Amino acid sequence: MKTKYILAATCAALAGFSSALAGGEGWSHDFDAAKKQAAGDKKDLLMDFTGSDWCGWCIKLNDEVFKHDAFKTGVKDKFVLVELDFPQDKSKLSEETQKQNEELQGKYAVQGFPTILLCDSEGKPFAKTGYQAGGPEKYVAHLDELRAKKVTRDKSFDEAAKAEGPAKAKALIAALKAMELEDETVSAFYPDVVEQIKAADPKDETGYAKELAAKEKFAAFEQELNGFARKQDHAGALAFVEKSAGDFEGEQKQQIVVTKAMIYAQMEKFDEAIKAVDEAKALAPESDMAARFDGFKKQLEAAKEKSKDKPKEGAKEEEAKEEAAE
């Protein structure tokens, strides 16, 4: 349930390539220098956004994978390693490095740690991952699978260069979808590709422009909804969601309706929340999100039963008045 109304985003150094604080030898903290090295050595970039002294999963990833020789050996011919640290102890990093890391966090829209981005030597991302259990050998194999996304991307770009019209647009769309990146990342790093798709398919035979417009519309919806969340205005949020639901369809409408259920739950209107969950499920019963609705409904039913044992606010006030009168 992706809506930001309920979910919040979770959870020096020296320049050069000689050492790193958490990852150990072989990691850089200088992004520009890392790009130059990657271009010269014909390698990709592995960017580790981490909180080295507070993020539990970051520490596990470092201890279980990055520190080991099997990892370093497995990636040395493929990646230039870049550690972008956000420690609580800021004395570990120079002001210059802190500024660089904050700028890169914004540029790459990183919201949680650890975030591992695989990028080409120009810094364009082609895959994203994080913590993976199983140790260094398994992680290296995982990275190799992700590198295949770049192969698919580049192959599709080559096909697009030889095509025209909707065929060109389809090849470019295939390149973007192969990477499975967030829409914000695509907009930030591949805007030229998006424009090429629109130019090659002005009648939108691929449906890409329609899909893109729908995503932009939903992003605007989320942004406005977050304004109600910041003010803790549940009634306003509920009215806005109910008003907006008719403007969307399919899984996007499903997300909006289940958001309504979440708002009702925060208001402790559990019957309305349960009804909204059923309504959301009926909109797209085969969606990935719908598969989680039964569990959510059980949680609401349990919360409803628990709420029966809580004295109502009116009853509390009446009881207080009686006690004062006595």
Automatic annotation (TrEMBL):
Protein name: Thioredoxin family protein
InterPro entries per the UniProt record, alphabetical: AGR/TXD (IPR051099), Thioredoxin-like_sf (IPR036249), Thioredoxin_domain (IPR013766), TPR_rpt (IPR019734)
Region described as Disordered: spans on this chain: 302-326
Residues of the Thioredoxin domain: 8-148
Gene3D superfamilies (alphabetical): Glutaredoxin
Keyword annotations: Signal, TPR repeat
Pfam families (UniProt xref): Thioredoxin_7
TPR-type repeats, residues: 254-287
Signal peptide extent: 1-22
